[in-house]
Amino acid sequence: xxxxxxxxxxxxxxxxESWPVxxxxxxxxxxxxxxxxxxxxxxxxxxxxxxxxxxxxxxDAERVEILMKLLETFSENKQYxxxxxxxxxxxxxxxxxxxxxxxAVLGWTQVPLSLEVPVEVVFEDETRRDELHRRPxxxxxxxxxxxxxxxxxxxxxxxxxxxxxxxxxxxxEYTTLGTxxxxxxxxxxxxxxxxxxxxxxxxxxxxxxxxxxxDKIMFTGSQATAQKIIESSSGNMARLTLECGGNDxxxxxPDADPSAMAEGLFWRAFINMGQTCACAKRLYVHEDQYExxxxxxxxxxxxxxxxxxxxxxxxxxxxxxxxxxNKVNDLVEDAKSNGARIVTGGEPxxxxxxxxxxxxxxxxxxxxxxxxxxxFGPVLPIIKYSNVEDAIASANxxxxxxxxxxxxxxxxxxASVASxxxxxxxxxxxxxxxxxxxxxxxxxxxxxxLEFGVEGLKAVSQPQVISINKPQG
Length: 473
Prior knowledge:
This protein is of the alpha/beta class and 473 residues long. It folds into 2 domains: 6-244 and 446-466, 3-Layer(aba) Sandwich (Aldehyde Dehydrogenase, Chain A, domain 1); 249-428, 3-Layer(aba) Sandwich (Aldehyde Dehydrogenase, Chain A, domain 2), CATH 3.40.309. It is built from 15 helices and 22 strands. Strands 14-15-16-13-12-18-19 form a 7-stranded mixed sheet, with helices on both faces. Strands 9-8-7-10-11-21 form a 6-stranded mixed sheet, sandwiched between helices. It is globular. The termini are far apart. 50% of the residues are buried.
């Protein structure tokens, strides 16, 4: 079985150590991922540092012209890379799955390259003119997760390169191969050293993060790992953008229409089998609509085909890895043992792979582990409330704040409630519908810093003020 390679300075770099990668739907061995040594991490950072001055010296238009060529690369290899996503991550080819992720790769490449980041004149009078320019940091170390492996890698890569940085990327050890293949293809377009990869576990990530020549770190993943990154980067004082997930609350107001909103709610909770940072993970429903909402969601859950994502008609795949599978099962078992009602699902499927059915859990309250802990899987606790003020308090009671949503037929009322939710983004009658033009980031322990849009480009560049003293006649 093939062992895949990292890319350093435009060249494929083999490793003496590797680990097997299996398809989460079939348990089939699909390849071996390389483990980067400390010397290889150092070489990747050195290559990025050496390439950065020439890359930054190009005009913005020149960099954009080169990066726009990646759109053709992604389009030509869309099917190939989507198949890697299915085989390695598990999301199906159809529905909001692997081809959907590849469409996002295209979109999050094109949009950041279309935006303008003009020089800002922050002050001017007859004696002086002060301009705010944006300059690259230098070398960006990016650590990306396993849930949307190619899309989130692009979120880090394209803005960083656009602004004149070079990048060393470490993909998740759970979804390494598809990302390495994407970067290999990108290096057919990019100058050597501009985009490099290293791979392995947290030891490799720590080596990258604490490297003295890494100037900026971009991370999407768990809060626990983010805290380790903060500690490890203290020596080099690298700037940080951290997206640490959340436990997003969705509130259905008393006037909401469960039948009309059910499909939107379903997919906003269960896209990618609930393995998405900003999807609905706690649903608060008014007592008058409680059973109706549960009924319509159950009808959808029971009708959705689950299986190997390469099979036609499948829209739900497996949980990506055994660790997450066990966590989801443990949280459901805890809910059961404490008297919660399993509306549908609730038991692992008896077949190969990490398959767990869509599970709706009712008659559960704040304080239950399934409510208070981010499940990051195909399970939704549905909590009854009688007073909207109580629902808002429940939504805000945890120490996370990535996203949230309010569902109602009264947009103004929903927006008013949304403004009181403690989250980086709150959607009305939707959830998790991110857009490459719209800034995105969390509050509280969900991280700090912004991605997407002009604010995302600013986040991968540092300000420089040029103050011009005007000659006086």
